[in-house]
Structure to design on (526 residues):
């Protein structure tokens, strides 16, 4: 993107990953797009420091709630984006994390496509990567966690989660659970019932990368208790699996040696 | 990070995600760390535009190959990082994508821990997010793909992949396969044998986000053919599942409507 040319054409929409919250974890491209927009729509999950990068003259509109957002709200957001684009605005839609991971970007793209509005995506750092980085842990581990699964556990009160528990309960994998605080008890019970050990390491992260970040190490059987003490209103991610135990040097080396021996 | 203070202390190591290749997809934090380092170790997967950001006076050392890297090489890298830190350097270890996803960061952290070297992680944009963004696709889709699984399919010639195929072959999920070009035939055959439809959408991306990016849309039964025509030396990511079919507006809306009806 040349500095002489606006990277967003009038009537174009960019879905931009705002990353986990720390404005320094925004990409250079996202920063350029934010500075080039004439209007910015943003989620509650977008960090305040990121919003500070929006130039003073740019229109900014808050959309969406942290959780419990209904489809009606999503329809309104789709409409707002399309209407702004059709009015000739240079539109940035800021989304917490990466737009392609539990970001409903497909719905916004479909709506733009319906109205002939050009839409593009700028990827971002997802919350699981930020939580692992803050904790000094890896999400994968050679010989110990060769698979990483992202799920969303955003169920309504009283409803069971529709997840393939047997497939999830793999001791050689890491599970990253987005929006799962309310479902912590069910996740813990089901994963244990399907074979994961009660002492499987768990890392809970709230507001990862932000000044009020909370990191809590626990084990799968104690996850419901730990989730209950994490700040109520926070964006929480739960990482489950041997890899996230952190800088367990001897475990890491043993696993790597085993992987080498098998290879 | 204040501009008056170096964010890397002497003798400290930062494992830094370099993102998918485009220097604009580097985080602002990664850029600051690169500019603050006295020595930078980097992978073959780190984009040339990213390396251009290393100041002229900074030592730069290429480590690792694109694939087939042996553990001996990893041990050498671990040693190099530790030795540089113990010599008082401000060390940045640049890794393609995100350090926590198939980046062997746990092994480098363990090695640093062994020698009392402080080590921290700066997360990055992973290749799957970049490939989806380039293709205008989402990795998850409400009502259609509620799960996203990252696997690495880096097997040696003649060896079978050790993956739980039954768990992977979930039609309501997206699979992101890293380093899997050589295993494309086996992946395709096994996933179909375990129940995925032959016409499951596949997106192949080579060098996502770079000027020589290649994007190829195909279907699971044709994946081996498609993988064979992707540039030989390229970093390839394979995305499998209904979500990656792209801006299929009617599919997206139908899936969202179904999710709403179920909720």
């Amino acid at each position: 993107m040349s500095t002489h040319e606006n990277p967003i054409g009038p009537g174009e929409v960019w879905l931009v990953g705002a990353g986990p919250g720390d404005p320094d974890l925004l990409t250079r491209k996202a920063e350029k797009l934010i500075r080039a927009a004439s209007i910015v729509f943003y989620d509650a999950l977008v960090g305040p420091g990121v919003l500070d990068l929006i130039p003073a003259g740019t229109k900014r509109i808050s959309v969406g709630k942290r959780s419990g957002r209904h489809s009606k709200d999503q329809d309104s957001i789709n409409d707002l984006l399309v209407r702004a684009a059709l009015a000739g605005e240079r539109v940035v839609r800021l989304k917490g994390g990466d737009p392609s991971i539990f970001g409903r970007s497909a719905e916004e793209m479909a709506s733009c496509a319906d109205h002939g509005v050009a839409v593009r995506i700028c990827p971002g750092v997802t919350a699981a990567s930020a939580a692992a980085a803050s904790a000094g842990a890896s999400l994968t581990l050679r010989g110990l966690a060769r698979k990483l699964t992202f799920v969303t556990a955003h169920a309504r009160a009283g409803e069971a989660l529709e997840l393939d528990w047997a497939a999830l309960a793999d001791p050689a994998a890491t599970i990253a659970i987005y929006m799962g605080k309310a479902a912590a008890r069910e996740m813990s019970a089901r994963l244990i019932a399907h074979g994961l050990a009660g002492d499987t390491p768990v890392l809970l992260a709230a507001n990862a990368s932000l000044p009020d970040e909370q990191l809590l190490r626990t084990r799968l059987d104690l996850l419901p208790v730990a989730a209950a003490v994490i700040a109520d209103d926070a964006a929480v991610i739960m990482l489950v699996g041997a890899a996230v135990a952190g800088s367990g040097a001897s475990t890491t080396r043993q696993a790597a040696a085993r992987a080498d021996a098998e290879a």
In short: The domain at 127-250 of chain B is CATH 3.30.950.10 (Methyltransferase, Cobalt-precorrin-4 Transmethylase; Domain 2). Chain B has two domains: 13-122, 127-250.
